[in-house]
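Reply to dn_fold:

You asked what the input looked like. This is it:
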Amino acid sequence: MGLSTISRAKRDQTWREDVVTNGIGRVEGITVDWIAGNIYWTDQGFDVIEVARLNGSFRYVVISQGLDKPRAITVHPVKGYLFWTEWGQYPRIERSRLDGSQRLVLVNVSITIDHRAEKIYFSDATLDKIERCEYDGSNRYVLLKNEPVHPFGLSVYGDYIFWTDWVRRAVLRADKYTGGDMKVLRADIPQQPMGIIALANDTNSCKYQTLQSLTREFTL
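and this is what came back:
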C-alpha cells in the first residue's frame, strides 16, 4: 500500500496486484472484512472512508461528511462495526456500522501546550478528566477528574487552564498546577462550546474565545 495506491500480494512476493490506483488522495489506514471480502481505508487527502471488494471492484464512499484527517481504521465484521481515529482539530475515536450509519464518538481528546512550563495538557471527554505530562509523555498526572462533566476545548494562560464543557455548556478554569481554585466563568452559552483560546489584551487582563457557530469573546 502506497499513499495513493492500494495493492495486494502473496506473502512470498511471487505475485502482486494494484487494486485501487486512482481517485485517492492519501491513504492513512486500511483494514479487511474477511467475512464479506471487503477492504476499508481512510483517505486523509479527501477526508473520506471508502470500501471496495478485495480486488478493488464495487468501490464506494462509506463516510464523506464530518471527517477531519482520518487515520487508523479497524473493522469488527462479526459485530458489524467500523472504528477509526481522526487527527484533525478535534482528535477523537469514532464508530459506525459497516455502511457508515449510526456514527458515534467514543473518545474526544483535546490538547494544548504550556510553553512556559513545558507541559502538555490533554482532556478525555469520555472519562471526564484533564491530564498533563512532559513533552516525552513522562510524569503523567490527572489534574481534574469528574469535575469537568464533559471537557472539550483546552487552553493554558498564566497559572490557569481553561476548558469548555459540553454538558454544562460553560467555560471553566482551574489552577494548572493543582487543579484547585476551579471557577465557572460562563455558564449560559446557548450552544455547545467547542475550542477555546486564552489570550492577553491591551489592558493586561485575559480574554478567551470559544468557537461556536459564531465566535464570541468574553473578558475574564
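The first strand starts at residue 6 and ends at 9.
Hope that clears it up.
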